[in-house]
Amino acid sequence: MGAKEETGQVEYHNGFYGAVHAVYEPTNVKMEYKQEHDLGDEPVRMDMLLIKQESIPLSDPIGSFFKTHNVIEYKSPDDKLNIDAFCKAAGYALIYKGLGKTVNSIPLEELTVSLFRHSFPREMFEALQTYGFSVQETHPGIYHVSGPMCVPVQVVIASRLPQGEYEEFKILAKNAKKEDVLKVLSKVGGDDRMAEYVSAILRVSVAVNEELYKEIEEEGIMTEAVRRVFSKELDEQKKEAKEEIVVRMLKKNMSVGDIQDCTEVPSDRIIAIAKANGMNAVAV
Fold first, then answer.
1. pTM for the complete prediction?
2. Which residues contact 56 (CB under 8 A, 6 or more apart)?
3. Residue 177, CA distances (Å) to 3, 62, 66, 159, 167 in order
4. How far is residue 6's CA from residue 177's CA, in Å, rounded to a whole number?
5. At what angle do helices 178-185 and 192-208 cross, to 10 degrees?
């Protein structure tokens, strides 16, 4: 059920995109979400660009920082957030501004940078202060950086956000809390689009918290709506489980017809399973 690339790495960014949508789409403030937004023709690409198309301010602690053009960078638990990563994100914002269609079509005062990470980047904050920056915690887990730069930056540390806030971001890391997972699960309802975003979050969360989700499923907390989110994975699991049963039946020298009657697995698939497991003709 987890979201892992062929390399075995977890696709954290897909979950994060889902988390941003899940947090801000319910506000009904019209915004445009551009994932992996290309900066010009060169292979320089920010993680996410959020263009706020209405002047209505967002009221939550993270969203209240946003202006019209918001560069968002997400550092997964496997990535480092250091002084270079900080400057790179600020650089993306300035490149984006400089590539506007006309001069100052992206006003500097309408540009922000937000960096998201699960754990506290102590070395980066110390380096910033060494260079004359000021780091102020404006809300638990949210830090505003000011100093010798022209773009406002906020750093969001998911592990330090208060209980009851932004569970979508928190459960993307290992050792997620059960109550946070359940809060996100409760948001899966009849809205297919929201279900898609939550699905992206859960695919990452399950990949790094497998034991927790097994516990939740065993306790019967997984709702029917959540099962729909994971319908493909669940169907695949059922298929694998059936094929394990087929192998056990083949080892007992049961006939293809009997196995098909018991499992509803097609005969050609039973024969293929037998060959794949080195079964001889007698077993088939």
1. 0.73
2. 29
3. 19, 21, 28, 10, 9
4. 27
5. 160
Rounded distance between C-alpha atoms, residue 221 and residue 37, angstroms: 37
Contact, 66 vs 53, CB < 8 A? no
Phi, psi of 119, deg, nearest 5: -105, 160
Contact between residue 35 and residue 48 where contact means Cβ atoms under 8 Å apart: yes
Q: Please tell me the distance from the alpha carbon of residue 90 to that of residue 115, in angstroms, as a whole number.
A: 10
How far out from the chain centre does Cα 273 lie? 35
- State residue 25 phi and psi, 5-degree precision: -65, -35
The 10 Å CB-count burial string (b at 16+, else e) for 236-267 is eeeeeebbeebbebbeeebebeebbeebebee
> Of 43, 42, 117, 41, nearest to 79 (Cα)?
117
Q: Which residues is 73 bridged to in the sheet?
A: 115
Give counts: helices (H), strands (E), the chain.
Answer: 11, 7
**Partners of residue 32 on adjacent β-strands:** 51
pLDDT string in tens for the chain (284-residue length): 566 555 567 889 999 999 999 999 999 999 999 888 776 666 778 999 999 999 999 999 999 999 999 999 999 998 999 999 999 999 999 999 999 999 999 999 999 999 999 999 999 999 999 999 999 999 999 999 999 888 999 999 999 999 999 999 999 999 999 999 999 988 877 677 888 888 889 889 988 998 898 888 788 776 665 666 666 665 666 677 788 888 888 887 888 888 888 888 888 888 888 888 887 645 44
